[in-house]
Amino acid sequence: MIKAIIATVAVTGFCFVQANSSHASIETDFINQLKTPVIQISKANHLYPSVMMAQAIVESDFGRSELSLDANNYFGVKGAYNGQSVTMSTGEYTSKGKHYMTAAAFKKYPTVDASIKDNAYLLRHGTLTDPNYYAGTWTSNALSSSDAAMALSLTYATDMNYGNKLNAIISKYNLNKLDGSVSTGDIGSKINASLNKQLAGNSHTSALIREENSRSKINSVPKLIIPNFVFNDNGATAINQGDAVIQFNSLPLQRVVRR
């Protein structure tokens, strides 16, 4: 009797390990399968590959959802693609966070790559009424993949925790390694994004910066000066009263020339 129990436990334990191993393999295989097109398409559209991959994982459950299997739709995009669509039930959230089920038409794609390209097009071109609807996901506007993911909450999905879910996936599977050296666009855009984040809600500081902006400039960016508090790196050089070199992470960023 004791031998039988031990044998059962041993077999059960073996099966459990095998199940976990198989589950991990499916997840790894999925990421490896989509890695190349996700990186290429995301970078071509100035988007974060890590966010694109996280979306595919969340929306398709690692390619196991009915929508991804039947329609190559890995991002839960609604509508029709070249006239092709499938109707499925889907979970949505009200503005108050209450979950409910409904039926909707989703795009049906001929290939996985077509699904990735269409999602990139959606993020870059927004909606018919607002082309900048997803501008918060662009590398020129989002200071990090985490910021880009949070910009999708209550825009891309009705789930108010959507951005947090994406960031959890990015962290768990170390998807930031897919980003490599992303194209962040014009340095002026990154500086403005940083300034806006620092100055949000501080009207007194904003007034001081606007006054200073009217008397200075940074190279090709007209009448813009970066306040010291934007850069908090201990190794950075402070801005002098005259001409100075601003440093970020101990590397020269821009030269300030006062009139």
From TrEMBL:
The keyword Hydrolase applies. Coiled coil: none annotated. Residues 16-179 form the Mannosyl-glycoprotein endo-beta-N-acetylglucosamidase-like domain. Gene3D superfamilies: 1.10.530.10, DNA polymerase, domain 6. Residues 1-19 form the signal peptide. InterPro entries: Glycosyl_Hydrolase_73 (IPR051056), MGlyc_endo_b_GlcNAc-like_dom (IPR002901). Transmembrane segments: none annotated. Keywords: Hydrolase, Signal. GO terms for molecular function: amidase activity. Belongs to the glycosyl hydrolase 73 family. This is Lysozyme. It comes from Lentilactobacillus parakefiri. The lineage of its organism: Bacteria, Bacillati, Bacillota, Bacilli, Lactobacillales.
